């Protein structure tokens, strides 16, 4: 590899011709090492750099390493909300939990009840176990909004089981006070459960947690559900089979469409059966 024309990466004449004909004084070269690491790679890079500098003593060779951490080792926050109803525009958050994963011990879990100035329906009390007496004297969401937003800044991405429920509620509560969520990716274990467990009954968090060996003793309370969602996602990491966060998000988008198509086919089949 001592001579430039022996690199096998580009020809000497090609580089010279490009600089003469196009006036180009920069060359972009990308090499992806798949199975090689350590001193051998470093030595190869040094040799390539030396050969280019021999070609042009004024050349500046910049080496960038793109060693992206696997998504399942990156710091993320699992989120769950308990609410007064199902409509994010008209109902309110009464409990919020934000649980860290793969983060330093300095980042503590957050869980807080909120007063909403109204009585809870019997159905919500039955589902969550949260009562009017428990909310009496609790702060409003706005009093803790900035604390929550600052906590979210530590995450590479956010996780929520059936995020299409939790995320609009958070956005709605923040919007009431002129605040917005940080622009972070959301990962929804529900999407992966629907794909990986598509032939198994029960897609609720409790069902999925039981199948995947995740402990969930206090379902429908925010902290328990958030912890279970984060642990469930990590349990599925090997089956999801993605390395980078971008790959995970791409697969999530693809599997969302798989789930939608499967549901449409199921509805069509049921409609055909009942209308015969």
The total of helices stands at: 11
- CATH class division of the largest domain: Alpha Beta
Kindly state the percentage of residues in helix. Answer: 40-55%
Could you give the distance between the termini?
A: 74 Å
Rg result: 26 Å
Broad structural category: alpha/beta
CATH superfamily of the largest domain: Ribonuclease H-like superfamily/Ribonuclease H
> What is the beta-strand fraction?
5-15%
Q: Give the uncertain stretches in residue-range form.
A: 1-22
Can you describe what's shown?
The structure is a single chain. This protein folds into two domains: 4-55, no CATH class; 71-267, Ribonuclease H-like superfamily/Ribonuclease H (Nucleotidyltransferase, domain 5). Mean pLDDT is 86; it is low at 1-22. A hairpin with an 8-residue loop joins strand 2 (93-101) and strand 3. The chain has helices at 12-22, 39-55, 122-128, 132-135, 141-152, 163-175, 189-196, 205-211, 222-235, 237-240, 245-274; strands spanning 76-83, 93-101, 110-113, 157-159, 186-187. It has a five-stranded mixed beta sheet, with helices on both faces. The protein is of the alpha/beta class and 276 residues long.
Please give the structural blueprint.
Elements: H1 12-22, H2 39-55, E1 76-83, E2 93-101, E3 110-113, H3 122-128, H4 132-135, H5 141-152, E4 157-159, H6 163-175, E5 186-187, H7 189-196, H8 205-211, H9 222-235, H10 237-240, H11 245-274
Helix pairs in contact: 7-11
């Amino acid at each position: 590899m001592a001579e430039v024309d022996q690199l096998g990466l580009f020809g000497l004449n090609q580089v010279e011709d490009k600089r003469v004909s196009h006036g180009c004084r920069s060359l972009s070269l990308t090499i992806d090492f798949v199975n090689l690491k350590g001193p051998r790679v470093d030595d190869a890079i040094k040799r390539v750099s030396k050969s280019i500098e021999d070609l042009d003593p004024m050349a500046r060779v910049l080496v960038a390493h793109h060693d992206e951490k696997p998504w399942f080792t990156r710091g993320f926050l699992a989120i769950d909300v308990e609410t007064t109803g199902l409509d994010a525009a008209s109902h309110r958050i009464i409990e919020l939990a934000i649980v860290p994963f793969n983060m330093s011990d300095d980042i503590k879990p957050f869980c807080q009840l909120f007063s909403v100035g109204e009585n809870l329906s019997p159905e919500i009390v039955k589902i969550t176990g949260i009562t009017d007496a428990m909310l009496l004297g609790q702060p409003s969401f706005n009093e803790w909004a900035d604390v929550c937003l600052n906590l979210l800044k530590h995450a590479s991405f956010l996780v929520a089981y059936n995020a299409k429920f939790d995320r609009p509620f958070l956005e709605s509560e923040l919007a009431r006070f002129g605040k917005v969520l940080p622009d972070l990716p959301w990962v929804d274990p529900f999407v992966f459960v629907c794909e990986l467990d598509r032939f198994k009954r029960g897609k609720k968090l409790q069902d999925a947690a039981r199948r995947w060996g995740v402990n969930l003793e206090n379902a429908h309370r925010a902290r328990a559900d958030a912890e279970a969602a984060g642990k469930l996602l990590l349990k599925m990491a090997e089956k999801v089979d993605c390395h980078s966060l971008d790959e995970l998000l791409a697969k999530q988008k693809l599997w969302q469409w798989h789930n939608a198509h499967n549901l449409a086919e199921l509805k069509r089949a049921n409609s055909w059966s009942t209308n015969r």
